[in-house]
Automatic annotation (TrEMBL):
<feature type="transmembrane region" description="Helical">
    <location>
        <begin position="415"/>
        <end position="441"/>
    </location>
</feature>
<dbReference type="GO" id="GO:0001761">
    <property type="term" value="F:beta-alanine transmembrane transporter activity"/>
</dbReference>
<dbReference type="GO" id="GO:1901235">
    <property type="term" value="F:(R)-carnitine transmembrane transporter activity"/>
</dbReference>
<feature type="binding site">
    <location>
        <position position="321"/>
    </location>
    <ligand>
        <name>Na(+)</name>
    </ligand>
</feature>
<comment type="similarity">
    <text>Belongs to the sodium:neurotransmitter symporter (SNF) (TC 2.A.22) family.</text>
</comment>
<feature type="binding site">
    <location>
        <position position="38"/>
    </location>
    <ligand>
        <name>Na(+)</name>
    </ligand>
</feature>
<feature type="transmembrane region" description="Helical">
    <location>
        <begin position="360"/>
        <end position="386"/>
    </location>
</feature>
<feature type="transmembrane region" description="Helical">
    <location>
        <begin position="29"/>
        <end position="46"/>
    </location>
</feature>
<feature type="transmembrane region" description="Helical">
    <location>
        <begin position="490"/>
        <end position="518"/>
    </location>
</feature>
<feature type="transmembrane region" description="Helical">
    <location>
        <begin position="202"/>
        <end position="222"/>
    </location>
</feature>
<feature type="binding site">
    <location>
        <position position="35"/>
    </location>
    <ligand>
        <name>Na(+)</name>
    </ligand>
</feature>
<keyword id="KW-0915">Sodium</keyword>
<keyword id="KW-0769">Symport</keyword>
<feature type="binding site">
    <location>
        <position position="386"/>
    </location>
    <ligand>
        <name>Na(+)</name>
    </ligand>
</feature>
<dbReference type="GO" id="GO:0089718">
    <property type="term" value="P:amino acid import across plasma membrane"/>
</dbReference>
<feature type="transmembrane region" description="Helical">
    <location>
        <begin position="530"/>
        <end position="552"/>
    </location>
</feature>
<dbReference type="GO" id="GO:0005886">
    <property type="term" value="C:plasma membrane"/>
</dbReference>
Length: 608
């Protein structure tokens, strides 16, 4: 045990948190964590980054960042939640000065959950539209059906689309260059306005889909983890079934080999490794795909039993998440290779990321397959379940923080809190389903889901290992998993003290410089100055909570030099553990003489 201190434990018959509850079993916890980590970004962002940054060569910085950044941060957040059985705000009672870090993560999570809910409404819209034959985006021109086959061009990514002329009921060629699926996305689904300043009306179809997804999430969260833990048996596994089906089908198509070669095969470019942008993309992709920073990992792991083996969980979840990204790339690019083959165009011209891949390019590819509605239904149902799992975690984080803040009032009202929270998020999402909604979604994604989460991650590592104390934290972990050798902790110490803070700080600088130099756009539409200012305000608001909360805590602190500037655990740090863990540890003070004065054991400090 660290510092030579020996902890005297009391045997308890049941390791169950009677106040907050625990996961019913280990499977539900693992599936929930995998479902949160494996999201839409694994499908529509990683494959694009891989092909853009050198194909198979991109896996080198990707796995380096996984080892140096992803795994250490994931383990840290899991250990924090499991140790004190509290959400991401109350865990910072360990370092009250940085309790604003948890609040910043919560607000950032709320903003991200708003646009994630809107993305779910998009997938539901396409899912319902897929129950038609032919698929509606195969013959829509300017919002009207142009059913004459001779009038439908075949180039999916760049072609002259016919204008519908009501006078002669015929299709005449215009200079508009777009695709059928892109036109369907812009004019039918989004009914997109000309810019952020033109709000337009609410797109009622999307609003109804948003309402439906909110109702589904509320129903799943009625009993918290007890109910969501059952649903993830389907939502966390179904995407793998569909990806496997799509991959098998894709490999049977002509051009699939070219697509896979383009993705990760013979066209790998090792010279890309000399570009700093490649390493930046690898770091940010690892950070975002594992969902660290905003508090979801801490919230879900807070329902673990105290002696759960979080080391195995961390490696298992991180490996599955990264393997899924690579696996999804094969399924995506095999279909894109087929698409490029049938149209006789380079794969580069059919490859996009984000919305362009999910709602423009891939639907066009699926429309060319036999029994196209079936493939479209499977694909969009997969996207919906992927998004649901991530949204479950985001909403569970909100309700967990509310429960931690007001346990006496909320303990028996979880169902009501879930319904009210989902209703509130539905209302916040309504501006994003107006005709200017896609601009709001892009704005939030660019500013809030960017450098903000990196700042939070950096402060987590710095606060725990340089203020709370790295050796103290390792001692806390050993209470849960047992004493480990010095060699076991060598990797973790190296990362937590040096590598992870350094890599995170460099990533912040790179991402922030990019955000400042390249303003967001949606296609060719640029944002007005007031829109960019609003985006920066959203990001800065999250970060400002950190120093603002520190000043508030300092103003209310009592005692010697304001409790050493709130760098020692607060008085309620121990009651959390007493209430939620039971009377496990001896509360007598140790006087072994081996405890370092400036960094005592957590139990020595807090239980005296």
């Amino acid at each position: 045990m660290a510092h030579g201190a020996v902890f005297r434990t009391h045997k308890v018959e049941e390791d169950e948190n009677t106040v907050r509850g625990n996961w019913t079993n280990k499977r539900e916890y693992l599936l929930s964590m995998i479902g949160m980590a494996v999201g839409l970004g694994n499908i529509w962002r990683f494959p694009y980054l891989a092909y853009k940054n050198g194909g198979g060569a991109f896996l080198i910085p990707y796995f380096i960042m996984l080892i140096c950044l992803g795994v250490p941060l994931y383990f840290l957040e899991t250990a924090l939640g499991q140790f004190c059985s509290q959400g991401p705000i109350n865990t910072w009672s360990a370092v009250p000065l940085l309790q604003g870090v948890g609040m910043a993560g919560l607000i950032g999570n709320v903003m991200v959950s708003i646009y994630y809910g809107v993305i779910l409404s998009y997938t539901l819209y396409y899912l319902f539209a897929s129950f038609q034959y032919p698929l509606p985006w195969t013959n829509v021109l300017d919002g009207v059906n142009c059913t004459s086959p001779q009038h439908v061009a075949v180039n999916v990514t760049s072609m002259s689309v016919s204008n519908w002329t009501r006078e002669n009921r015929s299709c005449t060629t215009s200079n508009i260059t777009t695709s059928l699926t892109e036109q369907y996305w812009d004019q039918v689904v989004l009914q997109r306005s000309s810019g952020l300043g033109e709000t337009g009306s609410i797109v009622w179809q999307l609003a109804l889909c948003l309402l439906l997804s909110s109702i589904i999430i509320a129903a799943v969260l009625l009993k918290g983890i007890k109910s969501s833990g059952k649903v993830v048996y389907f939502t966390a596994t179904f995407p793998y079934v569909v990806l496997t089906i799509l991959l098998i089908r894709g490999l049977t198509l002509e051009g699939a080999k070219d697509g896979i070669d383009f993705y990760i095969g013979s066209k790998s470019n090792l010279t890309k490794l000399a570009e700093i942008e490649v390493w930046r993309d690898a770091a940010t992709q690892i950070f975002y795909s594992l969902s660290v920073g905003f508090g979801g990992v801490t919230a879900l792991s807070s329902y673990n039993k105290f002696q759960n083996n979080l080391v195995v969980d961390t490696f298992l979840i991180c490996i599955i998440n990264c393997a899924t990204s690579i696996f999804a790339g094969f399924a995506i690019f095999s279909i894109l290779g087929y698409m490029a083959h049938i149209y006789g165009i380079p794969i580069e011209e059919v490859t996009k990321e984000g919305f362009g891949l999910a709602f423009i390019v891939y639907p066009a590819a699926l429309a060319n397959l036999p029994i196209s509605p079936l493939w479209s239904i499977l694909f969009f149902l997969m996207l919906f379940t992927l998004g649901l799992d991530s949204q479950f975690a985001g909403m569970e984080l909100i309700t967990t923080c509310l429960h931690d803040a007001f346990p006496k009032y909320i303990e028996k009202k979880r169902a009501l809190i879930a319904i009210v929270t989902c209703a509130f998020m539905f209302l916040l999402g309504l501006p994003c389903v107006t005709q200017a909604g896609i601009y709001w979604v892009t704005l939030i994604d660019h500013f809030v889901a960017g450098w903000v989460v990196l700042v939070i991650g950096f402060l987590e590592v710095f606060g725990i290992f340089y203020i709370y104390g790295g050796r103290r934290f390792i001692t806390d972990i050993e209470m849960m998993i047992g004493t480990k050798s010095v060699w076991f902790w060598l990797y973790w110490r190296l990362c937590w003290y040096f590598v992870t803070p350094f890599v995170t700080l460099v990533s912040i600088i790179l991402v922030l410089s990019l955000a400042m130099s390249i303003p967001p756009t949606y296609g060719t539409v640029e944002y007005p100055a007031w829109g960019l200012d609003l985006g920066w305000c959203m990001a800065v608001f999250c970060i400002v909570l950190i120093p603002a909360t520190a000043l508030y805590k300092l103003a209310g602190a009592q005692g010697s030099f304001r409790k050493v500037l709130l760098c020692s655990p607060s008085e309620d740090w121990h009651p959390y553990l007493d209430v939620h863990r039971g009377e496990r540890y001896s509360q007598e003070r140790f006087h072994t003489g081996n405890v370092v004065d400036d960094e005592p054991s957590c139990r020595t400090c807090c239980l005296s």
